[in-house]
């Protein structure tokens, strides 16, 4: 167990290093930030001074070593566009992203799990066919398109909900619906398939032959084993939710790190882009490790080698 955890931590560190290198290089070759932010008509001397101030006069390996050294001390630099420490800005936006992301993740998985269980237990019925159609539709519709359609229908046309911004629960309904839609469809389809496989297994048939109540068969024998593949994909679903937040936050003007990332990319604010990418990648890696450890709770028979 300990060796498995150490191997996963090592793999996570290697993945994080790979992400940081890719983001670092891409942010440097995506455009000349000096030309973008320097006053129009600046002399070569002024441009060079600005380049020195940003540390862009050094070679890429030197810049990366400085970036990693500072990041290990919690310093991701200063935002070029805002002129404030990057971590200060991110920490101010992070609670809003966590609020939207976690609620969307929980809602999406809860609804998907519930609908998947019902679809499996009512196999061949209209409900089963409707759930299957819903799952296919949910995986086919682009998240940003769905967000725009939800806004047009429920905010612009019907005036039931606000179009953007933050506030009460009514401000969360549309962003959560747009973000969790794919999770609902994905979890529904995976749960249904996993439940059907387990319910056709020999030990479930034996439990029914012994006269075990159907409720106990479903909740104790079938669901517990069917949750293993669903839990396996939880980390990937969280990554999907985080990826979808950038579009959702932009459409609904939600003040989180998703819209901050989009704006930072368009403004070539590479310190901000690097920090958000590394923090999000670290979060996803940690969640995946926790999901792996959760398997033992779901099924104590699982042993890590």
Explain what this protein looks like in three dimensions.
Helices cover 78% and strands 0% of the residues. The protein has 305 residues and is mostly helical. The protein folds into two domains: 2-72, no CATH class; 86-298, Orthogonal Bundle (MetI-like fold). The model has no long low-confidence stretch (mean pLDDT 83).
Topology readout:
Layout: H1 2-29, H2 33-37, H3 44-54, H4 60-72, H5 86-121, H6 126-140, H7 143-157, H8 170-199, H9 202-209, H10 214-232, H11 234-251, H12 257-266, H13 270-298
Helix pairs in contact: 1-13, 5-6, 5-8, 5-11, 6-8, 7-8, 7-11, 8-10, 8-11, 9-10, 10-13, 11-12, 11-13, 12-13
Summarize the structure.
This protein has 305 residues and is mainly α.
